[in-house]
Amino acid sequence: MEHYIIICNSTQHMLNADKILKQNDIKTELIPAPSEYGSVCSTAIKINAYNVDVAKKLLKDNSISLKGIYPYKIRKLEGIIDKIKEDLNDDLINVLKKVENGIELTEDDIVVILSSSGDKNLNSIFKAADEMRKAVVGDIVDIRAAIEFSNICRKNCFYCGLRRDNLSVERYRMDIDEIIQTAKELKKMGIRTVILQSGEDPWYTENKIIEIIKKIKKETNMRITLSIGERSYEEYKHFREAGANNFLLKIETTNREIFKNIHPDDDFDYRVKCSEWLRENGYVNGNGNIIGLPGQTARDIAKDILFFKDMGIHMVGIGPFVPATGTPLETYPHGDVEMTLKTVAATRLVLKNVFIPATTALATIDKDAQVKALMAGANTIMLISTPSKYRSRYKIYSNKNMVDLQTAYRAVIKAGRKMPPYINLEYIKDSE
To answer: Which of 158, 150, 120 is closest to 259 using CA atoms?
Structure first.
């Protein structure tokens, strides 16, 4: 079925357009805007071709500002099987033929990818994902930086070292001035997106978070990603109005039983509802999963990937499970790096135009894993930029590897990729 995408000139016009179309019984799908249309709005509205004329009139009558309405291009990787030139198993060849012809992958297709083994099969998967990455987002690796401003959490998740009942953690909170000053230092490095990350700490009220957002915007004009957990619809709305651009709230797993087993005081449906609220408020919406949770299967992970697709997620964080001291899962083995890399690759092939970080958790298990992730479809690295006096206390998992600008630079160069032009390279030289 033929589709078109609507690109608006602002997030607010996009949200208004989506609302108007839905009110007139036009089925819409919010998807990450293809990179070739620029960055006027990160989200596009996808509609069936037979609704285009009616949609145009509705949007014109309601004064919606449009960049344009374009045919939805199916992403193909023509000739990818010839480039791989490997003797692959039949099931994987059939999946790669779908990728080659721009046919959407099914849950079973994703399971084939995730269940593949052997160097030839894995190399073909990573090569296809890397080609897709190159086609849709290019060779520049986006560099972002996280300020972990509080390790206090009201939740008691079984896998997380910050859990409420973990008495081995030395707790801290950064005050607002410390957070702003750290963001200003990141601005000097050239960082354009700061990630404000914490446990679910109720001390940081709606008003405090809004104050932080507004001060960072005023002092640096940086893009702001919030990663502060579950909040109300009104809070998400007010944070967005204050200037927050992105929000990262990971589902961790879409298997309800596993979710319940690792989240004793969370509700799966409420977590999904929060992601829907973020989408409705026009955030660049981040999500993600943990690979290697107890009881998890390849099919569970495939369902996760399709959930991200259905939710119109813009950024997917994929990391292996890493045990944390003082948690019920501290003796459980860490997640498999190979499965994590296969998940990165499958996510790139299915979701295509999204941000996929080469995560710190990967670097914690395997010092070369960030390079491997960049070569398997990832295109983002997040620096740990928490002030040194707090850094060692933010233990979501144990033995966390440090990822600074120098580490990121080495990974980017080793993967044959490019640093973004906005980074101040003097900071890399100074750290050598």
So the answer is: 158
Looking at the DSSP bridge assignments, the partners of residue 226 are 196, 247
Q: Tokens 């990179």 map to which residue? A: 35
Phi, psi of 385 (to 5 degrees): -120, 25
Query: How far is the CA of 108 from the CAs of 94, 125, 222, in angstroms?
Result: 11, 15, 41
Per-residue confidence of the chain (432 residues) as pLDDT tens digits? Answer: 799 999 999 988 999 999 999 999 999 998 888 888 876 678 999 999 999 999 999 999 999 999 999 999 888 888 888 877 677 888 999 999 999 999 999 999 999 999 999 999 999 999 999 999 999 999 999 999 999 999 999 999 999 999 999 999 999 999 999 999 999 999 999 999 999 999 999 999 999 999 999 999 999 999 999 999 999 999 999 999 999 999 999 999 999 999 999 999 999 999 999 999 999 999 999 999 999 999 999 999 999 999 999 999 999 999 999 999 999 999 999 999 999 999 999 999 999 999 999 999 999 999 899 999 999 999 999 999 999 999 999 999 988 888 999 999 999 999 999 999 999 988 886 544
| Spatial CB neighbours of 240, under 8 Å, sequence gap ≥ 6 | 281, 282, 283
> Going from the N-terminus, what domains does the chain have, and what CATH number goes with each?
3-71 (3.30.70.120), 142-431 (3.20.20.70)
**134 backbone dihedrals φ, ψ, rounded to 5°:** -60, -40
CA atoms within 13 A on the CB side of 302: 14
Alpha carbon 105 to its chain's center: 20
- Please state the φ and ψ torsions of residue 277, each to the nearest 5 degrees: -65, -40
Q: Name beta bridge partners: 70.
A: 5
360 token code pair: 């710190």
CA distances from 238 to 11, 47, 69, 189, 200 (A): 15, 29, 30, 29, 18
242 three-state secondary structure: helix
Does this model's pTM top 0.90?
A: yes
